[in-house]
Inverse folding.
């Protein structure tokens, strides 16, 4: 299957700082990227959907000023957690897919964010 | 929104078959997926089935779809300890223009040696 690379895999930051997470599609053009948050022993919660060159569409309850998403190219999307707080600590996973009805979504390896 | 339900836990002995079940509510689902997540890792696409199919087999994996009952299952033959992981069922609705997926909570499969 296609490869989606997410970086970093783990990050620890201080409260009040910002953290950027990158999601890259390595061997295909990712027209659409999804950002998920996963709490321990729970399912994936979709945070936002982004199309290349457009503003991201955020799910209800997700603060767009808190979680900045940029999808400036067909191979890269970034999620920036601004002014991070301990409650933002979580596992963040991106997913990417190409256009087309049959296109599968491929996932990055996830980023474990710990805010101290 | 769409609901996808899975049982949370399944334990089997090595060498036995595992069957993970999933139910969904959206009758317009186009594709249904099974993903595997190992600890601390992202999701790995195992297999998917189009809604006009009843069954799909891929080596040790067999997916059965009962569209009338909105029931999906994943059977893993000859389960190995390396199969221990969380398995997520996901559906993609017909109206989902961007390919958004709706996930179940995941089934923790534990394989005992």
């Amino acid at each position: 299957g296609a490869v989606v690379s997410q970086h970093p895999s783990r990050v620890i930051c201080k409260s009040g700082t910002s953290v950027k997470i990158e999601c890259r599609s390595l061997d295909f053009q990712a027209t659409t990227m999804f950002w998920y948050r996963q709490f321990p022993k729970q399912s994936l919660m979709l945070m936002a959907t982004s199309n290349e060159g457009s503003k991201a569409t955020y799910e209800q309850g997700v603060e767009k000023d808190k979680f900045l998403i940029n999808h400036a190219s067909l191979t890269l999307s970034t999620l920036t957690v601004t002014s991070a707080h301990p409650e933002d600590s979580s596992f963040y996973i991106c997913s990417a897919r190409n256009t087309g009805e049959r296109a599968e979504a491929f996932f990055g390896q996830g980023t474990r964010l710990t805010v101290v | 929104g769409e609901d996808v339900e899975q049982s949370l836990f399944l334990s089997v002995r090595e060498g036995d078959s595992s069957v993970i079940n999933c139910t969904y509510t959206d009758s317009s689902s186009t594709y249904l997926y099974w993903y595997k997540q190992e600890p601390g890792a992202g999701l790995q696409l195992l297999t998917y089935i189009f809604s006009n199919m009843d069954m799909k087999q891929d080596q040790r994996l067999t997916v059965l779809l009962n569209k009338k009952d909105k029931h999906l299952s994943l059977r893993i033959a000859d389960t190995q300890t390396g199969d221990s992981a969380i398995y997520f069922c996901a559906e993609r609705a017909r109206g989902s223009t961007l390919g958004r997926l709706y996930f179940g909570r995941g089934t923790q499969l534990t394989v005992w040696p």
About this structure: The radius of gyration of chain A is 13 Å.
